[in-house]
């Protein structure tokens, strides 16, 4: 029995030595931009270089594997010649769409890091979304709108995640990149959106959040011109335009066929517009006399606004019902 115990103790001691000899190396790859946009990817900036690094070990060998859509990846891992230091510099010209890993040794142990990928560029040409409220605007040209006084227009960068600090303009800037004191800069606005309530030509210059040194100008072709005013199409239904004094007679109201508007002192009206509740202009007339009938028989039943502009520039806005 004693002999058996001695052998058991001996084998237990050998087992402990084997456990101690087992490797516990867990190398990982780190990089300034690794994981910033995607957990296991490096996305390049315009500088096109990125430094990969691992923890301190005895020796290093870096490998790369070409990306493919296939799973599992059939491409071989290839040892990078001369890549035997703790760091590895990769660049967008030669290393884009490759996987990387590092094999390290310490004493008698060898281990490999999990793979990471070098993806494409953090880039997107700047573009601007323009949001207008139905019934409050009319497009008069490419990139130009007449907008009802009191309404608002929202401008947004199409790529808000990509871009960081913005410089917003209300007219054509004198300098690109922006220069402090430029009267076209909207001071204090640096976010990825801007709400305009006054006339101007709007656009932006922005630097990418992921790559702070990479900045882009929207370009004058992407600017949008807004002309705020009291236009004939402006509708009370949206609530953005405050009415003028509504002491203009509109009769009969409701009506089935003929509608009269009148204020004898006005004599005539330079413009008459009828707008439905969606803001769509359904009738227009110039040089209307106050005692002339307006035929609305072709309009579908519902609520309408009639906007009248007198010869001296006064605006009247009234509601009527077509039965």
UniProtKB/TrEMBL annotation:
Residues 250-321 form the Secretion system C-terminal sorting domain. The keyword Signal applies. Residues 1-21 form the signal peptide. InterPro entries: Secre_tail. This is Putative secreted protein (Por secretion system target). It comes from Chryseobacterium defluvii. Pfam families: Por_Secre_tail. Keywords: Signal.
């Amino acid at each position: 029995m004693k002999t058996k115990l001695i052998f058991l103790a001996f084998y237990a001691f050998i087992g402990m030595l084997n456990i101690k000899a087992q490797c516990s190396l867990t190398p990982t790859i780190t990089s300034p931009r690794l994981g910033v946009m995607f957990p296991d990817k490096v996305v390049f900036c315009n500088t096109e270089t990125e430094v990969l690094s691992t923890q301190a070990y005895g020796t290093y060998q870096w490998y790369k594997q070409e990306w493919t859509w296939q799973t599992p990846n059939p491409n071989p891992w290839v040892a990078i010649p001369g890549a035997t230091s703790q760091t590895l510099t990769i660049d967008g010209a030669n290393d884009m769409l490759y996987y990387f890993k590092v094999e390290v040794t310490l004493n008698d142990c060898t281990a490999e890091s999990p793979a990471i990928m070098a993806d494409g560029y953090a880039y997107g040409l700047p573009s601007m979304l323009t949001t207008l409220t139905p019934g409050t605007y009319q497009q008069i040209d490419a990139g130009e709108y007449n907008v009802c006084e009191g309404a608002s227009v929202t401008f947004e960068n199409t790529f808000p995640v990509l871009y960081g600090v913005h410089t917003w303009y209300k007219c054509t800037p004198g300098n690109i990149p922006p220069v402090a004191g430029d009267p076209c800069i909207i001071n204090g606005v640096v976010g990825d959106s801007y709400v305009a309530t006054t006339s101007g030509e709007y656009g932006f210059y922005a630097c990418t959040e992921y790559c702070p040194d990479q900045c882009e100008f929207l370009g004058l072709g992407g600017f949008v011109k807004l002309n705020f005013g009291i236009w004939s199409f402006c509708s009370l239904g949206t609530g953005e335009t405050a009415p003028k004094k509504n002491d203009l007679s509109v009769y009969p109201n409701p009506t089935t066929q003929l509608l009269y508007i009148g204020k004898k002192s006005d004599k005539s009206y330079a413009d008459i517009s009828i707008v439905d509740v969606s803001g769509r202009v359904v009738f227009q007339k110039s040089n209307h006399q106050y005692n002339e009938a307006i035929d609305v028989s072709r309009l579908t039943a519902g609520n309408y606004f009639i906007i009248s502009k007198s010869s001296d520039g006064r605006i009247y806005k009234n509601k009527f019902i077509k039965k």
